[in-house]
Structures are given as C-alpha cells and as structure tokens.
Amino acid sequence: MKEIQGGKKKKVLALIIILVVLTLIVGYLEFTSPSKGLGKNYLAIVELSGTIAYEESSFISGRTIAPSNVRSLLKTVEEDSNAKGVLIVINSPGGSATASEEIYYQIKELAEKKTVVTYITEYGASGGYMIALPSKEIIASPLSLTGSVGAVSVLINYGNLLNKLGVEVYTFKSGNFKDIGSPYRNMTESEQEVFMEMVNETAKDFIEKVVENRGDKVNLSEVVTAKPYLGKQALKVGLVDEVGSFDYAVSRAKQLSGLPQDAPTKVILLPKPSILDLLLGSDTLTGYKEKSMEISYEILLMWPLQQINLDK
C-alpha cells in the first residue's frame, strides 16, 4: 500500500514539473515574440537606465547600460515588422566614452530603418545624451538633467598616503608614459598634457556628433561649456525638441511613426537574470563579458552626479 502511495506521489510530482516546464516555455515564446498577443502595428518602448559601460549589471557594479544588451533589444525591434515606431526612454548620467559611442551608432542604424523618438526622464547627460542624438525628436521631462556635452577623466592618487605609511612602490617601465595615470605617484606636467589632449579629443568628437544631429537647432557656444541643463533650459539652447510627460512622449512617438493614438505599446525587455547573474554580472545573455580597464582615460559622464531634492 505504501509503495502504491509512493508511486502516486512520484507521478504527481513529475506532472507538476512537466507543467512548470511547459509554462516557462510558453512564457518564453510569448516574451521573445514582439507581436505576440498584439496582432497589429504597435509602438515599441525600449528603456535604457543606468551608467553606460561594457560591464553588465550586478550588485557590485550597479545598474548599467551595456552595448551588447542594447544590441539585443534593438535587434528584436528591428526584426519585427509590426513595430512601426520606437520610443527609447533614457535615464543615464553617461559613462564610458567608447560604450556610449557604440550605442550611439546602434541607435543611429535603427533610426535609418524605423522612426525613433527619445524621452529623457531623470538624466540624459553626457554619454546619456549622446545616445539620444540619432533620434528623430528628443523629448525631455521638464526637470530632467540634460546635456553636459563634454568629457572628464578622474584619477585618484594616493602616493602621499603610501609615503606616510612607509610603503614604497617600485615601477619598471619601458617608456616614460608606460605607467601614465599610476595612482602610486604624482603626474608629471607632460603626462597631464597627454591626458588633457585625450579628454579634449573625446569632447571634440562628442560636439561634432551634436552638430551633425542637431545642426542649427543648438546654441553651440552654450553647449560646449559642458553645462548640464534642466529639461526646460535644454529646450531653450536646442538640446531637445520638446518637454513633456512620458504619456506625451508616447503620443508624439505614435504620431511621428504614423500610428493611431489608440495603437498598442509594448516594452521590449531582456530575459530576467538569475540571482547569480545579479551577483556576478550576467554573461549568459550575450555569450561574453567584457573586462573593464583599471584606468579609464575617457569618460562621458556628468560628474559629480547632481541631485536636486524638493523639501516637502
């Protein structure tokens, strides 16, 4: 009798496992099919939030916008003929110059095939603003922080602290600039010049992209100061086309895409990472994980990060 009951329990458990697996498979198929359940043309919404970097999100690095993940999201939209327009929602203070530029070209390529509109929520600064440039229109929340068109390089030097602690660091190098940016010693004037040249060249490339995409709309003499602007101020200097709410951005994106106002929308997402992915950074979605350099000489980032609070 006990053996019969044990056999029934095993069958019930096996049936539950099968049902769970089937549910996961069906859910995955629905998730990866953009037009599933819509059956008609729609507006795709792609949300990009965090610091721009090649490393993917983890509890250690914080939330990031990785080019590999953006590529996957945009490819999903590009391949779906029912996605007639795209609203990219940006909340980013910037980050890596090279990662920002890569995402810029990814969005630019999509904008050549579909109507792309960008909405800036809290931050659309520096590299976060660069990736918005290829859009047909840039719409910002009135109190968002936008702009900061420029580059900055921040190096920490704790050579004096090591000296006080009696710690000596020996460096053997093949050329004068081989250990440029070393945190163990003060920089020479020639090394500072090298870094300044790289920062200026990076900023120049950024400004050229602004001119290419914004043309006569932008007040360049204002923008080149790398000043961050509230959304309403950004409109005055030509960094954005309009200010408004998220709902307005959705409505405007539908209009520019030739979609009726009652057309459905769909948020395009990556598969949810596991707990292990969150802890260590996921490389399962893209097949590889870039390693960060210890010293970053070019950063398109609004620094220090500004925060405006309203007293209640």
Write a structural description:
The protein is built from 10 helices and 12 strands. The relative contact order is 0.18. The chain is 39% helix and 17% strand. With 312 residues, the chain is α/β, with parallel strands linked by helices. The termini are far apart. The chain has a domain of 195 residues: 2-enoyl-CoA Hydratase, Chain A, domain 1. Strands 1, 4, 6, 7, 8, 9, 10 and 11 form an 8-stranded mixed beta sheet that branches. A two-stranded parallel sheet has the order 2-3. It has a two-stranded antiparallel ribbon with strand order 5-12. It is flat.
Choose one word for the global shape: flat
Distance between the termini: 69 Å
The radius of gyration over CA amounts to 24 Å
CATH architecture of the domain at 38-149 and 219-301: Alpha-Beta Complex
Helix content: 25-40%
Q: What's the level 1 CATH class of the domain at 38-149 and 219-301?
A: Alpha Beta
CATH superfamily of the domain at 38-149 and 219-301: 2-enoyl-CoA Hydratase, Chain A, domain 1
| Extended strand count | 12
As an assembly, this protein is single chain
Strand percent estimate? 15-25%
**Biggest pleated sheet:** 8 strands, mixed
Series of secondary-structure elements, N-terminal to C-terminal: HEEEHEEHEHEEHHHEHEHEHE
* Contiguous uncertain segments of 5+ residues: 31-38, 282-298, 306-312
- Total helical segments: 10
- Structural class of the secondary elements? alpha/beta
What's the CATH topology name of the domain at 38-149 and 219-301?
2-enoyl-CoA Hydratase, Chain A, domain 1
The overall pLDDT, averaged over residues, is: 82
